[in-house]
Protein backbone atom coordinates (compact mmCIF):
# COMPACT_ATOMS: atom_id res chain seq x y z
CA UNK A 1 0.00 0.00 0.00
CA UNK A 2 3.04 2.26 0.30
CA UNK A 3 4.05 1.59 -3.31
CA UNK A 4 2.69 4.96 -4.36
CA UNK A 5 5.48 6.56 -2.33
CA UNK A 6 8.26 4.88 -4.34
CA UNK A 7 10.34 7.59 -6.00
CA UNK A 8 9.17 10.31 -3.61
CA UNK A 9 11.67 12.20 -1.45
CA UNK A 10 11.58 11.83 2.37
CA UNK A 11 10.84 15.16 4.05
CA UNK A 12 12.69 14.17 7.23
CA UNK A 13 14.75 11.30 8.68
CA UNK A 14 12.62 8.18 9.16
CA UNK A 15 13.56 5.67 11.89
CA UNK A 16 12.39 2.27 13.09
CA UNK A 17 10.80 2.16 16.55
CA UNK A 18 14.24 1.18 17.86
CA UNK A 19 15.81 4.29 16.46
CA UNK A 20 17.55 2.73 13.45
CA UNK A 21 17.62 5.07 10.47
CA UNK A 22 15.69 3.73 7.46
CA UNK A 23 16.06 6.75 5.22
CA UNK A 24 17.47 10.21 5.78
CA UNK A 25 15.84 13.49 4.83
CA UNK A 26 15.88 14.09 1.03
CA UNK A 27 16.58 10.41 0.32
CA UNK A 28 14.59 8.76 -2.46
CA UNK A 29 12.22 6.04 -1.26
CA UNK A 30 12.84 2.78 -3.13
CA UNK A 31 11.39 -0.73 -2.94
CA UNK A 32 13.71 -1.73 -0.08
CA UNK A 33 12.73 1.24 2.09
CA UNK A 34 9.07 0.52 1.49
CA UNK A 35 9.36 -3.12 2.50
CA UNK A 36 11.29 -2.20 5.68
CA UNK A 37 8.68 0.45 6.56
CA UNK A 38 5.91 -2.08 6.06
CA UNK A 39 7.70 -4.81 8.00
CA UNK A 40 8.20 -2.49 10.96
CA UNK A 41 4.72 -1.03 10.58
CA UNK A 42 6.06 2.52 10.46
CA UNK A 43 3.30 4.88 9.39
CA UNK A 44 3.98 6.89 6.24
CA UNK A 45 1.77 9.59 4.80
CA UNK A 46 1.71 12.52 2.37
CA UNK A 47 3.17 14.79 5.06
CA UNK A 48 6.30 12.63 5.27
CA UNK A 49 7.22 12.98 1.60
CA UNK A 50 7.94 15.89 -0.72
CA UNK A 51 5.74 15.96 -3.81
CA UNK A 52 7.78 16.10 -7.02
CA UNK A 53 6.43 16.96 -10.47
CA UNK A 54 6.92 14.53 -13.37
CA UNK A 55 9.36 17.05 -14.82
CA UNK A 56 11.52 17.10 -11.67
CA UNK A 57 11.45 13.31 -11.35
CA UNK A 58 12.67 13.00 -14.94
CA UNK A 59 15.49 15.50 -14.37
CA UNK A 60 16.56 13.63 -11.26
CA UNK A 61 16.53 10.28 -13.08
CA UNK A 62 18.53 11.78 -15.97
CA UNK A 63 21.18 13.02 -13.53
CA UNK A 64 21.40 9.56 -11.94
CA UNK A 65 21.71 7.77 -15.28
CA UNK A 66 24.38 10.26 -16.40
CA UNK A 67 26.39 9.30 -13.32
CA UNK A 68 25.85 5.57 -13.93
CA UNK A 69 26.83 5.77 -17.64
CA UNK A 70 29.96 7.71 -16.68
CA UNK A 71 30.93 4.92 -14.29
CA UNK A 72 30.28 2.27 -16.96
CA UNK A 73 32.39 4.24 -19.44
CA UNK A 74 35.20 4.29 -16.87
CA UNK A 75 35.14 0.50 -16.91
CA UNK A 76 32.93 -0.27 -13.92
CA UNK A 77 30.63 -3.33 -13.99
CA UNK A 78 27.02 -2.56 -14.92
CA UNK A 79 25.56 -1.37 -11.57
CA UNK A 80 22.19 -3.07 -11.95
CA UNK A 81 21.39 -2.66 -8.23
CA UNK A 82 22.04 1.08 -8.39
CA UNK A 83 19.79 1.41 -11.42
CA UNK A 84 17.07 -0.48 -9.54
CA UNK A 85 17.47 1.63 -6.39
CA UNK A 86 18.24 5.06 -7.79
CA UNK A 87 16.67 5.31 -11.25
CA UNK A 88 13.68 2.95 -11.24
CA UNK A 89 11.91 4.64 -8.30
CA UNK A 90 11.78 7.97 -10.17
CA UNK A 91 10.60 6.28 -13.36
CA UNK A 92 7.84 4.40 -11.59
CA UNK A 93 6.79 7.54 -9.68
CA UNK A 94 6.27 9.25 -13.07
CA UNK A 95 4.17 6.42 -14.50
CA UNK A 96 2.22 6.03 -11.24
CA UNK A 97 0.92 9.56 -11.64
CA UNK A 98 1.56 10.53 -15.25
CA UNK A 99 0.99 13.98 -16.72
CA UNK A 100 1.61 13.81 -20.46
CA UNK A 101 2.39 17.50 -20.95
CA UNK A 102 4.89 17.49 -18.07
CA UNK A 103 6.49 14.25 -19.27
CA UNK A 104 6.99 15.63 -22.77
CA UNK A 105 8.34 18.91 -21.35
CA UNK A 106 10.67 17.06 -18.97
CA UNK A 107 12.01 14.90 -21.77
CA UNK A 108 12.79 17.76 -24.14
CA UNK A 109 16.40 17.85 -25.16
CA UNK A 110 18.50 20.02 -22.91
CA UNK A 111 22.24 19.59 -23.24
CA UNK A 112 21.92 15.99 -22.09
CA UNK A 113 19.78 14.42 -24.81
CA UNK A 114 21.29 10.95 -24.64
CA UNK A 115 20.58 10.64 -20.91
CA UNK A 116 17.09 12.07 -21.06
CA UNK A 117 16.39 9.79 -23.99
CA UNK A 118 17.25 6.70 -21.95
CA UNK A 119 14.95 7.90 -19.18
CA UNK A 120 12.19 8.75 -21.67
CA UNK A 121 12.36 5.29 -23.19
CA UNK A 122 12.34 3.77 -19.68
CA UNK A 123 9.24 5.83 -18.76
CA UNK A 124 7.27 4.79 -21.87
CA UNK A 125 8.42 1.17 -21.65
CA UNK A 126 7.39 1.07 -17.99
CA UNK A 127 3.96 2.41 -18.97
CA UNK A 128 3.53 -0.27 -21.64
CA UNK A 129 4.64 -2.91 -19.12
CA UNK A 130 2.03 -1.71 -16.63
CA UNK A 131 -0.72 -1.51 -19.26
CA UNK A 132 0.01 -5.08 -20.37
CA UNK A 133 0.01 -6.33 -16.76
CA UNK A 134 3.61 -7.51 -16.53
CA UNK A 135 4.53 -8.95 -13.15
CA UNK A 136 6.46 -6.70 -10.74
CA UNK A 137 9.66 -8.66 -11.49
CA UNK A 138 9.26 -8.48 -15.30
CA UNK A 139 8.38 -4.79 -15.12
CA UNK A 140 11.55 -4.03 -13.22
CA UNK A 141 13.62 -6.13 -15.66
CA UNK A 142 12.05 -4.42 -18.68
CA UNK A 143 12.62 -0.94 -17.21
CA UNK A 144 16.28 -1.61 -16.36
CA UNK A 145 16.77 -2.95 -19.91
CA UNK A 146 15.14 0.20 -21.32
CA UNK A 147 17.42 2.54 -19.33
CA UNK A 148 20.39 0.65 -20.82
CA UNK A 149 19.09 0.26 -24.39
CA UNK A 150 21.44 2.91 -25.83
CA UNK A 151 24.42 2.16 -23.57
CA UNK A 152 26.47 1.43 -26.73
CA UNK A 153 26.43 5.17 -27.49
CA UNK A 154 29.10 5.71 -24.83
CA UNK A 155 31.53 4.46 -27.49
CA UNK A 156 30.17 6.61 -30.33
CA UNK A 157 32.06 9.91 -30.83
CA UNK A 158 30.22 12.90 -29.38
CA UNK A 159 30.55 14.81 -32.70
CA UNK A 160 28.40 12.14 -34.33
CA UNK A 161 25.87 11.92 -31.48
CA UNK A 162 25.37 15.69 -31.49
CA UNK A 163 25.78 16.33 -35.18
CA UNK A 164 23.49 19.10 -36.40
CA UNK A 165 22.14 17.87 -39.72
CA UNK A 166 21.71 14.48 -41.30
CA UNK A 167 24.35 11.76 -41.14
CA UNK A 168 26.29 10.85 -44.26
CA UNK A 169 26.56 7.12 -45.07
CA UNK A 170 29.74 6.57 -43.12
CA UNK A 171 28.45 8.38 -40.04
CA UNK A 172 25.21 6.42 -40.16
CA UNK A 173 27.15 3.16 -40.33
CA UNK A 174 29.12 4.25 -37.28
CA UNK A 175 25.97 5.30 -35.40
CA UNK A 176 24.36 1.92 -36.12
CA UNK A 177 27.23 0.23 -34.29
CA UNK A 178 25.72 1.31 -30.96
CA UNK A 179 23.29 -1.63 -30.95
CA UNK A 180 26.01 -4.28 -31.15
CA UNK A 181 28.40 -2.31 -28.92
CA UNK A 182 25.68 -2.01 -26.28
CA UNK A 183 25.02 -5.75 -26.38
CA UNK A 184 28.75 -6.41 -25.95
CA UNK A 185 28.98 -4.00 -23.00
CA UNK A 186 26.11 -5.81 -21.28
CA UNK A 187 27.61 -9.30 -21.74
CA UNK A 188 29.37 -9.31 -18.37
CA UNK A 189 26.38 -8.14 -16.36
CA UNK A 190 25.47 -11.31 -14.45
CA UNK A 191 22.35 -9.77 -12.90
CA UNK A 192 20.86 -9.07 -16.34
CA UNK A 193 18.82 -11.71 -18.14
CA UNK A 194 19.43 -12.53 -21.80
CA UNK A 195 16.21 -10.86 -22.89
CA UNK A 196 17.26 -7.66 -21.08
CA UNK A 197 20.63 -7.70 -22.88
CA UNK A 198 18.92 -8.37 -26.22
CA UNK A 199 17.02 -5.07 -25.92
CA UNK A 200 20.28 -3.20 -26.58
CA UNK A 201 20.89 -5.40 -29.64
CA UNK A 202 17.38 -5.51 -31.09
CA UNK A 203 15.67 -2.17 -30.41
CA UNK A 204 16.34 -0.92 -33.97
CA UNK A 205 15.20 -4.15 -35.64
CA UNK A 206 11.86 -3.88 -37.46
CA UNK A 207 9.09 -6.42 -38.08
CA UNK A 208 9.56 -6.37 -41.86
CA UNK A 209 13.32 -6.98 -41.58
CA UNK A 210 14.22 -3.39 -42.49
CA UNK A 211 15.97 -2.63 -39.20
CA UNK A 212 19.53 -3.14 -37.94
CA UNK A 213 22.03 -4.57 -37.04
CA UNK A 214 20.92 -7.95 -38.45
CA UNK A 215 17.67 -7.20 -40.26
CA UNK A 216 15.83 -9.91 -38.32
CA UNK A 217 12.01 -10.01 -38.50
CA UNK A 218 9.36 -9.59 -35.83
CA UNK A 219 9.08 -13.30 -35.06
CA UNK A 220 12.77 -13.35 -34.12
CA UNK A 221 12.58 -10.37 -31.77
CA UNK A 222 12.25 -10.68 -28.00
CA UNK A 223 9.04 -9.26 -26.48
CA UNK A 224 10.97 -6.67 -24.43
CA UNK A 225 12.74 -5.45 -27.60
CA UNK A 226 9.36 -4.91 -29.29
CA UNK A 227 8.16 -2.79 -26.36
CA UNK A 228 11.35 -0.71 -26.23
CA UNK A 229 11.24 -0.14 -30.02
CA UNK A 230 7.80 1.50 -29.66
CA UNK A 231 8.91 3.62 -26.68
CA UNK A 232 12.13 4.59 -28.48
CA UNK A 233 10.40 5.84 -31.63
CA UNK A 234 7.77 7.77 -29.69
CA UNK A 235 10.38 9.54 -27.57
CA UNK A 236 12.66 10.28 -30.53
CA UNK A 237 9.76 11.84 -32.46
CA UNK A 238 8.46 13.90 -29.54
CA UNK A 239 11.69 15.69 -28.65
CA UNK A 240 13.54 18.42 -30.44
CA UNK A 241 17.00 17.45 -31.59
CA UNK A 242 20.02 19.37 -32.69
CA UNK A 243 18.92 18.91 -36.29
CA UNK A 244 15.18 19.55 -35.96
CA UNK A 245 12.41 20.93 -33.76
CA UNK A 246 9.95 18.50 -32.24
CA UNK A 247 7.07 17.56 -34.51
CA UNK A 248 3.45 18.59 -34.13
CA UNK A 249 1.67 16.17 -31.80
CA UNK A 250 -0.71 14.89 -34.49
CA UNK A 251 2.19 14.04 -36.77
CA UNK A 252 3.88 11.93 -34.10
CA UNK A 253 0.66 9.94 -33.64
CA UNK A 254 0.21 9.58 -37.43
CA UNK A 255 3.75 8.26 -37.88
CA UNK A 256 3.31 5.80 -35.01
CA UNK A 257 0.07 4.57 -36.59
CA UNK A 258 1.82 4.08 -39.94
CA UNK A 259 4.77 2.25 -38.34
CA UNK A 260 2.33 -0.06 -36.55
CA UNK A 261 1.75 -1.72 -39.91
CA UNK A 262 4.90 -3.54 -40.91
CA UNK A 263 7.59 -1.99 -38.74
CA UNK A 264 6.48 -2.21 -35.11
CA UNK A 265 4.45 -4.69 -33.09
CA UNK A 266 0.92 -3.77 -34.13
CA UNK A 267 -0.92 -4.52 -30.90
CA UNK A 268 1.67 -2.85 -28.62
CA UNK A 269 1.72 0.26 -30.83
CA UNK A 270 -2.06 0.58 -31.12
CA UNK A 271 -2.45 0.10 -27.36
CA UNK A 272 0.26 2.70 -26.78
CA UNK A 273 -1.39 5.29 -29.01
CA UNK A 274 -4.80 4.77 -27.43
CA UNK A 275 -3.41 5.06 -23.90
CA UNK A 276 -1.35 8.15 -24.77
CA UNK A 277 -4.47 9.78 -26.20
CA UNK A 278 -6.41 8.84 -23.06
CA UNK A 279 -3.66 10.47 -20.99
CA UNK A 280 -4.22 13.64 -23.00
CA UNK A 281 -7.83 13.85 -21.76
CA UNK A 282 -8.08 16.93 -19.55
CA UNK A 283 -5.03 18.53 -21.18
CA UNK A 284 -5.05 21.94 -22.78
CA UNK A 285 -4.08 21.69 -26.44
CA UNK A 286 -3.29 24.07 -29.25
CA UNK A 287 -4.99 23.18 -32.52
CA UNK A 288 -3.52 23.55 -36.01
CA UNK A 289 -5.96 26.42 -36.71
CA UNK A 290 -4.49 28.39 -33.80
CA UNK A 291 -7.33 27.86 -31.34
CA UNK A 292 -6.81 26.30 -27.92
CA UNK A 293 -9.09 24.00 -26.02
CA UNK A 294 -9.29 21.02 -23.72
CA UNK A 295 -9.38 17.34 -24.73
CA UNK A 296 -12.59 15.98 -23.24
CA UNK A 297 -13.21 12.61 -24.84
CA UNK A 298 -11.48 10.03 -27.05
CA UNK A 299 -13.45 8.53 -29.90
CA UNK A 300 -12.60 4.82 -30.04
CA UNK A 301 -13.18 4.74 -33.79
CA UNK A 302 -10.71 7.59 -34.37
CA UNK A 303 -8.42 7.86 -31.34
CA UNK A 304 -6.22 10.56 -32.87
CA UNK A 305 -9.25 12.84 -33.40
CA UNK A 306 -10.83 13.49 -29.97
CA UNK A 307 -13.62 15.81 -28.84
CA UNK A 308 -12.31 19.26 -27.87
CA UNK A 309 -13.94 21.80 -25.58
CA UNK A 310 -13.38 25.31 -26.88
CA UNK A 311 -14.20 28.64 -25.19
CA UNK A 312 -17.42 28.82 -27.21
CA UNK A 313 -18.52 25.18 -27.48
CA UNK A 314 -17.26 21.80 -28.61
CA UNK A 315 -15.33 20.70 -31.68
CA UNK A 316 -15.39 17.04 -32.71
CA UNK A 317 -12.09 16.47 -34.50
CA UNK A 318 -13.33 13.12 -35.85
CA UNK A 319 -15.83 15.11 -37.95
CA UNK A 320 -13.39 17.95 -38.73
CA UNK A 321 -10.32 16.04 -39.80
CA UNK A 322 -8.58 19.07 -41.29
CA UNK A 323 -8.09 20.43 -37.77
CA UNK A 324 -5.54 18.53 -35.66
CA UNK A 325 -3.77 18.79 -32.31
CA UNK A 326 -0.62 20.86 -32.79
CA UNK A 327 0.73 20.62 -29.23
CA UNK A 328 -0.08 20.14 -25.59
CA UNK A 329 0.19 23.34 -23.57
CA UNK A 330 0.82 23.98 -19.90
CA UNK A 331 -2.24 23.56 -17.72
CA UNK A 332 -3.87 26.89 -17.03
CA UNK A 333 -2.38 28.51 -20.13
CA UNK A 334 -4.66 29.10 -23.05
FE1 LIG B 1 19.27 3.23 -30.12
Write the layout of secondary structure elements.
Blueprint (H helix, E strand, L loop, with lengths): L8 E2 L3 E2 L5 E3 L7 H9 L9 E2 L3 H20 L6 H17 L3 H7 L6 H19 L4 H12 L10 H4 L7 H18 L7 H9 L20 H16 L10 H11 L6 H14 L4 E4 L4 E6 L9 E4 L2 E4 L8 E5 L5
Antiparallel strand pairs: 1-4, 2-3, 5-6, 5-9, 6-7, 7-8
Helix pairs in contact: 2-3, 2-4, 2-5, 3-5, 3-6, 5-6, 5-10, 6-9, 8-9, 9-10, 10-11, 11-12
Bound molecules: fe (ii) ion.
The site of fe (ii) ion has 4 residues, from loops.
Q: What is the gist of this entry?
A:
The protein has helices at residues 31-39, 54-73, 80-96, 100-106, 113-131, 136-147, 158-161, 169-186, 194-202, 223-238, 249-259, 266-279; strands at residues 9-10, 14-15, 21-23, 49-50, 284-287, 292-297, 307-310, 313-316, 325-329. With 334 residues, it is of the alpha+beta class. The chain is globular.
Amino acid sequence: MYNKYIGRTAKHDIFTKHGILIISANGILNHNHISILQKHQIPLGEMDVIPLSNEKLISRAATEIFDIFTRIKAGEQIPVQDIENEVLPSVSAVTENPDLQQILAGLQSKDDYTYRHNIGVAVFSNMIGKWTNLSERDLSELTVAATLHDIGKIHIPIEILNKPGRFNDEEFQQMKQHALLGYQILQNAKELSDRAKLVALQHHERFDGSGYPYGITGDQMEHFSKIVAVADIFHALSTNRVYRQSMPFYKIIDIMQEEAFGKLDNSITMLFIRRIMEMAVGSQVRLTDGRTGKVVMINNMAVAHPLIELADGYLDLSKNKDVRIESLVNKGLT
